[in-house]
Amino acid sequence: MDDNGDQHRSDPFADFTAISAWPHLGPDPDGRYFFGGERDGAALGEFGWSLPMGGSGGCGGGAGSFGARDCFGDVDQIIGAGAGAGGGQVSAGAGSSSAPPPPPRGSDAASAAGGTAGGDASTSNRSASSESSEDPPERSAASGESLLAPEKPNKVRKKGQKRIKQPRFAFMTKSEVDHLEDGYRWRKYGQKAVKNSPYPRSYYRCTNSKCTVKKRVERSSEDPAIVVTTYEGQHCHHSAGYLRSSTISHEATFGRHFAYPPSQIYHPTRLHVPIETSPYNLNTHRAPTSSGDSQRLLTSSGERGEPSGVNQLLPTEGLLADVVPPKMR
DNA sequence: CGTCTTTGACCCGCGC
DNA sequence: GCGCGGGTCAAAGACG
């Protein structure tokens, strides 16, 4: 499979402006993380996301990134540098909040599982160059097999093995579609009914065999128009969802649940589905109410000369934002 | 035919 | 210890 291994092209999402960030919030004891300020940019970097929070932005064109391949280097920088307060916390939170598992045995898996489970961004030295080669069965790597002896069946392995909580973050998006395209390919591996909610929660896993990133998607029971997306882990590869040649069907690339064709996804002028994005509190399952703090969340679109209201990170009551990477303009 | 979704069962953590 | 809810597995089926 060539799935996410295409790293030769530019990524339309490389400049995707930040999705969300939490103000004044740090990692909670659960290893979850809310974002705000520079620290949060670093934290997001842990996920391979980079936000232009009050700065020249690190990645690519200096704008925010969304699963940006061009950002990985900056991620390391952010985490390793003074911002290490933020990035380090994330790493520590993820890696030490609970007994860390033994590191992945395989060298190839190290970049993926190690980078995320261990919360050590230093492992994100992008072994993507080899990801297109021998791809072990996805289930193996994705299900965390790299964390333990591979010869054991999953069911057996699960016993006695603590689930590792990786750093994660969530954001709310007002959208008609549940599964928002983010440049990566996801495979749905589960769906559960949510208590006190008529809407189910879907579980997705990155289709890259060496990537352990997962995400949950659910609709708010209070406002069905709001989609809550929770990311867990960090991509160890470049986004590859788009620009896949004819070998990959549209629904494979963008999800058959996507309401509009790819040509409308990345083209700002064609995107007709209004998206309102705001941070989501994993603790309270609500959007923040402090408008003052929320203001700090605004991505500096102005710095990039972006029209206001486009790709902006906004408070709950904020403006509509397009799900469009600025680069595609 | 390969990839992805669906879905019931299973496992695990946590609160009582 | 028990029950509940969240998260994951994996077989089966659907789809292009």
From TrEMBL:
Entry protein name: WRKY domain-containing protein
Database matches in InterPro entries: WRKY_dom, WRKY_dom_sf, WRKY_plant
Biased composition (Gly residues): 54-65, 81-90
Species, as recorded: Eucalyptus globulus
Bias (Basic residues) ranges: 155-166
GO CC annotation: nucleus
Basic and acidic residues bias locations: 27-39
Main location: nucleus
Swiss-Prot/TrEMBL keywords: DNA-binding, Nucleus, Transcription, Transcription regulation
Start-end of Polar residues biased regions: 279-302
Residues annotated as domain WRKY: 175-240
Compositionally biased region (Low complexity): 106-131
UniProt key word Thylakoid: no
GO molecular function, one term: DNA binding
